[in-house]
Amino acid sequence: MSPPMNSLNTDSPTSTIPNAKTPKSRHGGLLFALLIILILAAVTALNKQAIEDWWRLRQYNPPTAIVQLANQNTMTDYGRKLFYINKPEVASKIDFSKRCLNRDKEQTIVLGCYHGIQNGIYVLRVDDERLDGVEQVTAAHEMLHAAYDRLGSSERAKVDDMLDDYYKNGLKDERIKNVIDLYKKTEPNDLVNEMHSIFGTEISSLPVNLEQYYSQYFTKRSTIVNYANTYRVAFLKLQNQVKDYDSQLTTQKTQIDNLQADLKSQLGVINTRQQAMNSIRSTNPVAYNAIVNDYNRLVREYNQGVSDLQGQIVTYNELVVARNAVAVQEEQLVNALRADVVEVK
Questions:
Q1: Which whole-number Å values give the CA distances from 40 to 32, 34, 50, 54, 99, in the listed order?
Q2: Domain-wise residue ranges, the chain
Q3: Distance CA 81, CA 237 (A)
Q4: How far is it, in rounded angstroms, from Cα 242 to Cα 167?
Q5: Do 82 and 143 form a contact (C-beta atoms < 8 A)?
Q6: In what order do the strands lie in the sheet with 89-91?
Q7: 218: helix, strand or coil
Q8: CA–CA separation, 126 vs 333, rounded Å?
Q9: Residues in Cβ contact with 295 at an 8 Å cutoff, skipping those fewer than 6 apart
Q10: CA–CA separation, 80 and 66 (whole Å)
């Protein structure tokens, strides 16, 4: 009679051979280890950017001015990280020119620049109090360039579609349209990138999908738009004053030209009368005395017209002085935004 199964010697190392479990367990462990390695590799790849970001920020302490800009722009934690990773600087005109201006090309007004692949953000320092808000808007604008740089291909395609749709079907601001038209000529390859920054900082109301998209960078985007509107008003106020003076000068110049033409005609009549009077003065005193009063009236009217003309010329010249003073203020604002113009104080 065969012994029962439970009578085998369980202390024997060969007890597992009948089911061949030991080799199977070894292969399963190897596959598990490979799976863990693959998972770790995938996690590492997914977090590569986060690791790089941590490395860049590990010893970075943003200057007070940079923290203030981030706060003023209501940057989210993610938006602030993108800003800080680029070690932003508010630079003087001299330093800004070195970092941002291309001397080989004609320069328009440049207020900031972003060096690609998270290699730096520079904001022009603007000291004129009438232009408060320029630095804030510029900082937000350049941070959005860094954000666009981070977008993956599929996400970028989606964002590009939203921006293009708004540009073609929703944009009403003629000033913004003109700016984009300029970029079409000067930087056609970066057009959507520029729209990404401009729409996010200068358009007060955007479609819901774009508002939701920009909310990952700013908690209150309207704050930035208000900054943009504030310093733009300073320019508009001066520009409108110049236009008003120019309109007054045009009207005044027309009046002066008309009065001068009238006076020239009056002088012609006076000269003709004077010649007639001189010709009869000695031969016909009665006829002379009959026309002398009318002649004197013409002279009085002419002299009054000359006086009026002189007064209008004085007024015109005063308007020119006032107009030019405003134009100087406007030029000062423009120069305050030009890194290539350093005013001597």
A1: 12, 10, 15, 18, 40
A2: 64-230, 232-336
A3: 37
A4: 32
A5: yes
A6: 89-91, 121-124, 112-114
A7: strand
A8: 10
A9: 270, 273, 274, 277
A10: 10
Question: Which CATH code fits 232-336?
Answer: 1.10.287
CA–CA distance, 123 with 118 (Å, rounded to integer): 15
Hunting for tokens 């800004």 — which residue is that? 96
Residue-by-residue pLDDT tens, the chain, 345 positions: 444 444 334 444 444 444 444 445 555 567 666 666 666 666 565 577 788 888 888 888 999 999 999 999 999 999 999 999 999 999 999 999 999 987 445 446 789 999 988 889 999 999 999 999 999 999 999 999 999 999 999 999 999 999 999 999 999 999 999 999 999 998 899 999 999 999 999 999 999 999 999 999 999 999 999 999 999 999 999 999 999 999 999 999 999 999 999 999 999 999 999 998 999 888 898 888 888 999 999 999 999 999 999 999 999 999 999 999 999 999 999 999 998 876 655
Tokens of residue 89, six digits: 């600087």
